[in-house]
């Protein structure tokens, strides 16, 4: 039996002086990885409220900590960060909440505290081990859809990870089991599940709309679609309601719950991302054996031969560029990272950005950091490490251990700047139910 260490550290009292009785309390608990002894080493805790900026500290007394904050219930968003220091005053733990409304309410928030720049086991597990999971971020966490189990059969489970309390809630199963479905989400908590493959590996067309707001477990409805079958694809968000699908060219209009094929268009590679310019223009860039660009409803190709590879990932950087990482080039796994200008196609090569060359890692950007977790080595081994890169320069920051090897996993950024690493195949070749969290270091 695994146990998550929990510690109640603070009560945040909220009050609006102009309105008698407009008060509330937010209780803050700390969570760590199962079986972790991190909190046992903590001598001092610093808790910071972002708005208005308020900092309180407490030292351990009789094995416990007691902190309290008072703040106006102004209704604006704020967040809590927690820093933990040991007896030598070294920072040994860090965590943050997503933003929440500082209004007159009663609530509980759990902050997951991990070692800074670490990947550690999350407090929750998948209902069943799966790989080829479809996933997307939600404003309060992430949605995890379908996949394949140990017998290679397509699965129908739908689960939602809540970053406010680090629990995993079960939603209504998919109308039909799917592996490798593309998932799109909107700010109002609605998910769109597109395509995917059956147990036999047959790609499917069409999809469904899933409203996570319908109690108790969400509600499904059909999408309108005339698009080609697809599996293993992604949905790239171009605006609040418009998405470009990788694979057979098509767009999703979330407002109309409709998927429309794009006749005569280029196919967007699965390894793709979206960057938004200072003027608000969204550009999608995909990379495989060519670099495909989509902006303003128009496809074209960029000439960037240094970027071409397979088994890689493509992510946006914090300065509006495109990072091409990991994967295979000219028959060898590459340590080099590529930084691509989405407007001009200009390429910057960051030599030896990866300490361990790998293909097919799970990858996501978390604030100032990019995480590449697991994957497959040059010799075909499944890797049990994660590489952390600077999200602007692509410089190597750290290589850290994971709970175990995994490949074929997916990674989703959470609204507290952690990254959730989901499923995949473990070192024994079995589908894993383990979730892990990357924790950054404080700004």
Task: Reconstruct the topology from this structure.
Layout: E1 4-15, E2 23-34, E3 44-50, E4 53-59, E5 67-72, E6 77-78, E7 80-85, E8 91-96, E9 100-101, E10 106-112, E11 118-125, E12 134-138, E13 141-148, E14 154-162, E15 167-171, E16 182-185, E17 190-194, E18 207-211, E19 219-222, E20 224-225, E21 235-237, E22 242-245, E23 250-253, E24 258-261, E25 272-276, E26 282-287, E27 291-295, E28 298-302, E29 313-316, E30 322-325, E31 328-329, E32 332-333, E33 337-340, E34 347-350, E35 362-366, E36 369-373, E37 385-390, E38 396-401, E39 406-407, E40 410-413, E41 419-422, E42 425-426, E43 434-439
Parallel strand pairs: 1-5, 2-10, 20-24
Antiparallel strand pairs: 1-2, 3-4, 3-7, 6-9, 7-8, 11-43, 12-13, 13-14, 14-15, 16-17, 17-18, 18-19, 21-22, 22-23, 23-24, 25-26, 26-27, 27-28, 29-30, 30-33, 31-32, 33-34, 35-36, 36-37, 37-38, 39-42, 40-41, 41-43
Name the structural class: mainly beta
- Outline the low-pLDDT stretches: 14-21
Total DSSP helices: 0
CATH topology of the largest domain: Neuraminidase
What CATH architecture of the largest domain do you see?
Answer: 6 Propeller
Number of strands: 43
Give the termini distance in whole angstroms: 35 Å
Shape: globular
At the fourth level of CATH, the homologous superfamily of the largest domain is Kelch-type beta propeller
- Output the strand order for the largest sheet: 20-24-23-22-21
């Amino acid at each position: 039996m695994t146990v998550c260490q929990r510690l109640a550290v603070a009560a945040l009292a909220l009050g609006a002086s102009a309105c008698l009785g407009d008060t509330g309390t937010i209780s803050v608990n700390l969570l760590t990885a199962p079986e972790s002894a991190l909190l046992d080493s903590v001598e001092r805790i610093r808790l910071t409220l972002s708005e208005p900026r308020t900092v309180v500290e407490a030292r351990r007394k009789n094995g416990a900590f007691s902190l309290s904050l008072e703040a106006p219930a102004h209704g604006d968003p704020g967040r809590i960060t927690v820093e933990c220091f040991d007896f030598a005053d070294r920072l040994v733990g860090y965590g943050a909440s997503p933003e929440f409304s500082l209004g007159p309410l009663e609530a509980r928030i759990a902050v997951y505290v991990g070692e800074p720049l670490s990947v550690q086991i999350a407090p929750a597990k998948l209902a069943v081990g799966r790989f080829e999971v479809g996933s997307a971020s939600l404003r309060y966490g992430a949605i995890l859809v379908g996949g394949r189990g140990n017998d290679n059969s397509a699965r129908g489970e739908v689960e939602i990870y809540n970053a406010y309390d680090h629990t995993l809630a079960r939603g209504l199963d998919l109308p039909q089991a799917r592996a490798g479905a593309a998932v799109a989400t909107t700010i109002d908590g609605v998910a769109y599940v597109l395509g995917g493959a059956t147990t036999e590996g047959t790609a499917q067309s069409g999809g469904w709309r899933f409203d996570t707001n319908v109690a108790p477990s969400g509600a499904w409805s059909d999408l309108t679609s005339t698009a080609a079958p697809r599996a293993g694809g992604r949905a790239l968000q171009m605006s609040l309601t418009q998405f470009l699908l990788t694979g057979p060219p098509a767009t999703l209009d979330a407002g109309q719950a409709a998927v429309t094929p794009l006749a005569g268009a280029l196919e967007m590679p699965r390894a793709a991302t979206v960057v938004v310019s200072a003027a608000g223009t969204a550009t999608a860039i995909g990379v495989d054996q060519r670099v495909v660009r989509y902006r303003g409803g128009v496809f074209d190709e960029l000439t960037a031969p240094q970027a071409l590879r397979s088994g890689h990932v493509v992510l946006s950087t914090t300065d509006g560029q495109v990072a091409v990482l990991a994967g295979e080039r000219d028959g060898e796994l590459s340590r080099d990272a590529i930084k691509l200008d989405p407007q001009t196609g200009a390429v910057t090569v960051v030599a030896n950005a990866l300490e361990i060359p790998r293909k097919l890692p799970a990858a996501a950007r978390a604030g100032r950091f990019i995480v590449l977790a697991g994957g497959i080595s040059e010799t075909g081994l499944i890797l049990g490490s994660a590489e952390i890169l600077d999200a602007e320069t692509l410089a190597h920051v750290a290589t850290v251990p994971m709970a175990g090897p995994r490949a074929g996993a997916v990674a989703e950024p959470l609204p507290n700047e952690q990254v959730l690493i989901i499923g995949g195949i473990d070192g024994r070749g079995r589908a894993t139910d383990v979730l892990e969290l990357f924790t950054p270091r404080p700004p």
